[in-house]
Give the backbone structure.
Amino acid sequence: MQAQTRIHKVVLAGVLSALTILLGLFPSVGFIPVPTPAGAATTLHIPAILGGVLGGPFVGGLVGLTFGIFSFLRATLPLFKDPLVAIIPRVLIGIVAWAAYTAAARASKSVLFLLAIAAMLVAAGFAAQILQYSVILGAFILVLAVAAGGALLWFVSRGDKRAVAVAVAAILGSFTNTSLVLGLATLLGYLPLQGVILVAATHGIPEAIVAAVIVTAIAVAVGVAGAPQRSRL
């Protein structure tokens, strides 16, 4: 049984790593256009999140390593030619996603409700800041924040802990990628702090929402989430 589990994880890691490379080779799929300063929300971190949720920290870390190496080898910007920026944060994506999924799946209904509210308030807070610079962009992020928060609350209300846990894992996994890459880029002098804050606020949230929607939909499709579990809440 343990041998079968190991084989399953190796195969899963291989498939998701290959998917990461394919997404990178086809920018129209790997980068979804959004009205933010960055211009697109990447999906290359999504296989690493799925690896963490479906296969655990080893699979998630291995797929994230593939993402990091691919980013490093194809880098055109100086910051991504630095392995500390290009690789290390990506390895942690799947590991953080696994930890977040495990913790959220064990949480009570009240805790999950508070997490959904907190996520919506944080995103709305960022939107309020962006409204000072751009009404259209701020309104766009606010709508995304309310929609994502409402979806999480709906999952909580119907008793599906796993769907909420998957969404939380996707959001935190995505924020791990954004915050660590931008944070290290700032510390190492590749980017100015003011520009990093703007990109993190306007780009990180839409990217996290895209990740949450895609990862949750896949998790429901493969049976990891989607079945009501009212008796367990």
Remarks:
- Strands lie at 31-33, 40-42.
- The longest strand covers residues 31-33.
